[in-house]
Specification:
The protein is built from five helices and six strands, in the order ααβααβββββα. The protein has helices at residues 2-20, 41-54, 78-100, 102-108, 154-179, and strands spanning 57-59, 112-115, 120-121, 127-128, 130-133, 137-140.
Length: 180
């Protein structure tokens, strides 16, 4: 058994030193293709209304690093994200700007607003409507419930209030409590 260990170590040492002797130059060009897309109309609007004035980054596109891999969720549809962000800007940020001023929002809002299209259901069947993570990020689920054609439906507004506005104010309250 000891001979096998020594033989294995000798082979690994030879391989290691043989690869270190290679003076081959690496190609300076990346092998990865740049798949970034140019900013669309919504990206520009987000930059004007969230990023520049309040330093809030909005992820409405599916960013898998920002979401738990243990839960299956759908990405937000762009038309739903667009309408919901307009409402969030008006109802959440606009109301705090009116009451406490823009400096309050700049100092206390999270730096990332993550939008998820569907609900997050845990293995025990409970539904997560939103998450506030360390005062830095708010994740909103159920973004795809936003319907561009249902603006006059009272049931729609009640559902939007429950799944969006209540959640964002609730998660923002967590952030305010954490910073206090």
């Amino acid at each position: 058994m000891k001979q096998i260990k020594y033989l294995l170590l000798a082979v690994l040492g030879i391989i290691f030193f043989a690869t270190c002797q290679n003076n081959e130059k690496l190609n300076p060009e990346s092998v990865f293709q740049d798949v970034s897309t140019p900013p669309n109309e919504l990206d520009k609007w987000i930059k004007e209304n969230f990023t520049v004035p309040y330093n809030i980054r909005v992820n409405y596109k599916f960013v898998d690093n920002e979401i738990s891999t243990a839960i299956n969720v759908d990405p937000a549809r762009i038309e739903c994200a667009k309408i919901l962000l307009y409402y969030i800007n008006h109802v959440w940020i606009g109301s705090f700007n009116e009451v406490a001023g823009p400096d309050f929002i700049k100092e206390n809002t999270p730096r990332l607003l993550q939008l998820i299209g569907s609900s997050e259901y845990k293995h025990d069947g409970t539904e997560t409507l939103g998450i506030a993570e360390g005062g830095v990020k708010i994740t909103l689920t159920n973004v795809n419930l936003t319907d561009p054609k249902a603006e006059r439906d009272q049931l729609y507004w009640a559902r939007l209030n429950k799944y969006c506005f209540h959640v964002i104010f609730h998660e923002f309250a967590h952030i305010l409590h954490q910073t206090k």
